[in-house]
Amino acid sequence: MPPTPLPRPSAAAVTPEVVEIERALSRITYLSTRARQHERLMALAGVPLDRAAVALLRQIAETEPLRPGELAHRLGVEASHVTRTAQQLERSGHVVRVPDPRDRRAQRIELTEAGRQAVARIREAGAHGMQVALADWTPAELGQLATLFHRMVDDFLAHSADEDTETPPAVPGGRSG
């Protein structure tokens, strides 16, 4: 059963500051996900991978090793998408499958040394571009922005976890969840 849509907040319930934050995040997302931007980043990093592969490598680097289903959940994609991308990364030598120590029948995906180096080069190239763009910011402004971004992401993740654990309301005369 599809999830029950959340009630729409009234226009008055959303503050102008939140509207501006949402607009800025949309602009950042657009800028960072453009194909041309990705190609330039990959050229600077010397890593010839598509966007899906980079997203998977970054996620594994943050939490490795994980089962494909866990990766799919964290990335918000179908498990088959993770399986195809992991196979591509396995062929290119960036990841390997290893037995899950808690369940030998299951496998987890782990970065190889080549995968760790690729993530490091991608992060370095991205950070360099950011450093150039933010060159006129003071260290205090950069620190404040970093602190606020981390706080925002943590709050988004906490809110997302709350939504994931909520049970849908019972349907009158029907079954719940």
Task: Describe what you observe in this structure.
- With 177 residues, the chain is mainly alpha-helical.
- The chain has a domain of 116 residues: Winged helix-like DNA-binding domain superfamily/Winged helix DNA-binding domain (Arc Repressor Mutant, subunit A, Orthogonal Bundle).
- 63% of the residues lie in helices and 8% in strands.
- It contains seven helices and two strands; from the N terminus they run H-H-H-H-H-E-E-H-H.
- The chain has a two-stranded antiparallel ribbon with strand order 1-2.
- Helix 4 packs across helix 5.
- The longest helix is centred in the C-terminal third of the chain and has 27 residues.
- InterPro entries: HTH_MarR-typ, MarR/SlyA-like, WH-like_DNA-bd_sf, WH_DNA-bd_sf.
- This is MarR family transcriptional regulator.
- Pfam families: MarR.
